[in-house]
Amino acid sequence: MMRLFYLSCLLLFVTGVCRAQQYPVFTQYFFNELAINPAYAGAHVQFSATALYRNQWVNFPGAPRTFSFSGHTALMKNKIGVGLMVNRDEIGSYGNNHVYGSYAYKIHMGQATLSMGLQAGFTLLGADYSKLSLQDDDPGSFLSMNTFKPNFGAGLFFNKKNFFVGLSVPFIINSKSNKNGGFEGALTEVIERRYYMLRSGVYIPLDRAGKVKWNPSFLLRSQEGQPLSIDINNAITIYDIFSIGAAWRSSDAFIGFLDLKLTEKIHFAYSYDWTSSALNKFSNGSHEFVLNFRSIIRGVHKNPECPSYYSYR
């Protein structure tokens, strides 16, 4: 009976995810803002590439796993930015692949910059029911699903010295996939809802030399048909080499994270989410690993003035 109860809960949970959210939730977007705002493309000026792996709700059957790669750079003397993001998100028998390109046009206003960004691409929604453990060993009783969905988004990003604010709608088109009717159709229905994101942060020096900095920030996330959520982040950066912090995601998790400068070009970051919802009875939390590489391409960037890793300008 307990196994049946857990399986029922899992099915209801997976159904809720598939109906509500297709784009993966990242914890460490504060190290890669391109994940939530296309206007951030080229903000590092130099070429920046980020690889990410997220293992969510460890020990929970069918829990989400996310693989992500992104890259972006400034071009034309920092007048525009271009970027590319590729994600693979796995939830149970479902697999979502996202491929999106970004373009940002920058308006420089003295010490401040306003970027206007667009992104376009597609999502491949698929399901492999052979991964399900069924007593009758007949996964064919469920119809598979493979759907191609194009979409586009837009955003604004304003930064001045150690302050920034961004507003984005990463996915503008609301799309729906349901090839089957009845109860089975309800389980396989996928609805892509529109997101609205407001993000802001600041670096505040804690000493005269600016060797120690406090970095408070927040992300206000709204998705149609879902409750409003907010992330509140705080970090301390020491000598632009090491950063450690904590965050809170409303009704979801408490988070600890750190970032370490390995070389002049490479940073490594790790975060752990302590689940605060009812899922904490079944899960050991979530791990997220990030590796970032940045480098000037002399033939493209000439001699640009690049912002430091721990700054918004």
From TrEMBL:
Alphabetical UniProt keywords:
Signal
Q: Name one Pfam family in it.
A: PorP_SprF
Q: InterPro entries recorded for this chain?
A: PorP/SprF_Bacteroidetes
Q: Which residues form the signal peptide?
A: 1-20
| Keyword set includes Signal | yes
State the name under which the record lists this protein. Answer: Type IX secretion system membrane protein PorP/SprF
